[in-house]
Write a structure and sequence with these properties.
Elements: H1 3-18, H2 24-35, H3 38-54, H4 65-76, H5 82-97, H6 103-119, E1 123-127, E2 134-137, E3 143-146, E4 151-155, E5 163-174, E6 183-186, E7 191-194, E8 198-203, E9 209-214, E10 217-220, E11 225-228, E12 233-237, E13 240-244, H7 250-253, E14 260-266, H8 267-278, E15 281-284, E16 292-297, H9 302-312, E17 315-319, E18 334-339
Parallel strand pairs: 5-6, 15-18
Antiparallel strand pairs: 1-4, 2-3, 3-5, 4-5, 5-8, 6-7, 7-10, 8-9, 9-12, 10-11, 12-13, 14-16, 17-18
Helix pairs in contact: 1-3
């Protein structure tokens, strides 16, 4: 069988799906193919990105090109927009007046104009989808690993006094040392301040946590401020921080290497982690929530993980067929975990 022909047929099938022209059977076949491997899922997402770029949701004819050009020129500093042009005319008018009493007012106007321009800071946003991780380097040289279903926002250029990023989800930071300019990670549940160190922040939900691998960090919570040392793990419990010392940091940080470790972890906690990574909801039978498992996952897909659970414990993992959608590749699925 010709691989090039197979690839062409696959691309045609994906294109028909994205264009809304695929039949129910074609959609079912495509979804089944995507679920077969992570490589298939990544290939589909790449094709989806290409389709989105070539088929924008807006009408190109409706774009005000002149206005867009002025906006771009203004942001890049190449050419002023209408406000700058008007301001220049204003300055020219003032120079014609040549009134010494007017110069102080002109200086004040100019000062606030420059301040307003400097206050506009371009923000960069990096986002990962379910089942994917990403790595980025910040303007100061700090390396960041972003876990699945996470977003980090940071300025294109850090301010002189501090280096602050905004995180939703989970990320591992290798911060460039700079004691004069603290590095701050802000999340909806806690914030972490460091100068140069390595640490992990898990902030998917209110049970957020911080794991310190190297250096020193200060963690601010709504009720307390805690300093951590290497090997410390801080976790939020009902809004109260609890610190465990001398823990195995790999348990909380190995995900960036593609490894997920559950060391005698409760089933409800395991399912919470799988939800954050794969976007699947779980409903667990009450008698199973506290059952513990030991698993080391190295790239297994969700079906393989569920099969492992069924092999190591008397449980059944039953998909809710009604929660699956065939009109979108983003499946909001529910899995029932019951006793055998």
């Amino acid at each position: 069988m010709n691989p090039e022909t197979d690839n062409t047929n696959l691309n045609i099938q994906i294109t028909r799906y994205l264009a809304g022209e695929a039949s129910p059977q074609e959609i079912e076949d495509l979804l089944h193919w995507i679920e077969q491997s992570d490589d298939n899922r990544r290939y589909f997402l790449r094709q989806q990105d290409i389709w989105s770029a070539l088929n924008p949701v807006f009408d190109i004819e409706e774009i005000d090109m002149e206005k867009s050009e002025r906006s771009i020129m203004f942001k890049t500093g190449i050419k002023g927009n209408g406000f700058i042009i008007a301001f220049r005319k204003f300055v020219k008018f003032c120079s014609r007046l040549a009134a010494a009493s007017f110069l102080p007012l002109l200086a004040v106007v100019l000062y606030f104009f420059i301040q307003s321009r400097d206050s506009v800071q371009q923000m960069i946003s990096v986002k990962t989808t379910y089942g994917c991780t990403s790595q980025a380097t910040l303007p100061d040289g700090t390396d960041v690993w972003l876990n699945a279903n996470s977003t980090i926002k940071y300025p294109a250029k850090f301010k002189e006094d501090t280096r602050e990023v905004i995180l939703n989800g989970e990320a591992y930071f290798d911060v460039q040392s700079d004691k004069a300019h603290p590095f701050k990670v802000s999340t909806p549940y806690l914030s972490v301040t460091a100068t140069g160190t390595q640490f992990n922040v898990n902030a998917y939900d209110p049970s957020a946590s911080v794991t310190l691998v190297k250096g020193k960090v200060d963690v601010a919570t709504p009720f307390d401020r805690v300093s951590l040392k290497p090997g410390d793990h801080l976790a939020m419990h009902n809004g109260i921080p609890k610190v465990d010392k001398d823990i195995d940091t790999e348990k909380y940080c190995s995900w960036k290497e593609g490894v997920i470790i559950f060391d005698d972890e409760r089933l409800d906690k395991i399912c919470s982690t799988l939800h954050n990574i794969y976007g699947v909801d779980f409903e667990i039978a009450p008698e199973l929530t506290s059952r513990t498992f030991h698993m080391v996952l190295r790239g297994e897909n969700l079906q393989e993980i569920l099969h492992f659970l069924e092999m190591t414990a008397p449980v059944r993992c039953i998909p809710d067929e009604e929660s699956s959608s065939t009109d979108s590749i983003r499946i909001s699925q529910k899995i029932y975990i019951k006793s055998k």
